[in-house]
User: What shape does this take?
Amino acid sequence: MKELASRGLLALAAVAIGFAAADTYVVVLALPDMMTAAGLTVAELQRAAPIISGFLLGYVAVLPLIGRVSDLRGRVPVLTGCLVVFAIGSVITAAGYDLPTIVLGRLIQGIGGGGLIPPTLALIADTWPAERRGMPLGIIGAVQELGSVVGPLWGAAILAFGTWHDIFWLNAAVGLAIAAAMLRHRPAERTRRGFDLWGLILVGIASACLLLVMMEPESLTTGVTSGLAFLPVTGDSRWLTPLALAGYAFLVAFVVRQATAARPLLAWRGWGEIARETDLWGAAALTVALGAVIVTFASAEPEQAVLADDAVVLLPIAALALAAFVWRGRRAANPLIPRGSLTATPAWGSIAVSFFVGAALIAALVDIPFFARLTIAPDDQLEAALVLVRFLVALPVGAVLGGWLLRHVPAGPLTAAALTLSGACFLVMGSWDAQSLESFSSTVVLAACGFGFGLALAPVNAALLEHTAAEVHGLASALLVVARMVGMLIGISALTTIGLRAFRGAVAKIPSVESLCDGESTACGAYTSAMRDAGIAQLQAVFTGAAVAAFIAAALALLLLRRRDIFSS
Assistant: This one.
């Protein structure tokens, strides 16, 4: 019965992860309309970057802390809390009226969405023995990757009948519905706490007031009487209106209620002990370090440099914060990463492999559509995206098969073989020309490349969970995700820089326009073809660099995850 309940909880967590993963890609379609709502034009695309990087920052920066809290507090409370946070972020984004509020909503969304993964992976380790974890890990990996396929389709369907706001309203509704379903799986001692109706009423009124402040519905703001609630008491800020002040008052009343009620809506009792068992200062230092690294690479313009313009400030901040984290780890009574928890070679080896997997994978996600636009679909973004689908659809298939194969093949060789396959496919892609995507063989290569990445997901996760104690499974899973995401950020910047060097080298060899076109228009076919070939040379260099990253990951997997008695049946 206990395992059956865990399976039900895992199913809910899988749906939540898939939905959060889809949301990552939905925003790409909605971005132009979101920019308009924030007062930005198409020419100001760089200013809109925080809409995406804000989500990424939330997704990664606090993940280790969330993973550690799930080890101390339990999987269900953290999963439920993350879904509520995701819903709150969705509501703020949907009601956002300018760039700061939209970015804030996306940041909160990222915290909730990213926080779902560590407790879910840890839940699998809690429920299934090592020799049977492969399949559930593969299924979770498949669901997560399936979001990248379903997300754009989901977003297109919503935008066909509604606006970008509807995407996030729907996110909030689904997140809260899954959270409510998860309440059935709360530990028995928590289900008898009772229900704080007054607390719910107070927080509901406060939320409604603040939400109306953000949305400023015309039917209310233009009313003779109701419009008075939207007139600022002083200055011109909407956050100093009577309605906003009422929201603050009800929010304060809610906090007082939670501090004094015998059975508060928020189960805050017990969190003090968890805070004492967690190095919050160390967690803060690691969050600052990760945040600085993420902003450094996520806000960079690869056409100009690997790092953002503010890297001269951000990287020293990251270095100092990381040094502070290491210092706290040696001095704190209860460090964020418990001493000795990642000393096993396959444990830290899995994190290293995950970093290089991310560095290689991002090249496919970004540059395959770019190659398609350059060669077969110069004016059709949809067709270019469909080329990437050839790669993406094979990822979940490989993830499920990789989970099944773990019963028969050790993690190290399986991961190495999978990533070697992906690396070999990248080498083939590194030799593609302008006609390559027109042949069926390109579909085989793209599918095989995606299949290899999918095949590696479950064994890397399983190796990490097998060689860490149950008390740190949430934290270890969080570090694995962080390594992959940081690898993607650094990888895309480094590979794009390598590609641009190849592009400039190819352009330098192109004869002058006059000599190619014999004095005719600069739009002559010979010059256009030469510039296209230079672009192809750039992407060939990127794919070759991705192959190197994949081969490094394969070698590390073979060397570091090689214990033969780990997963054999």
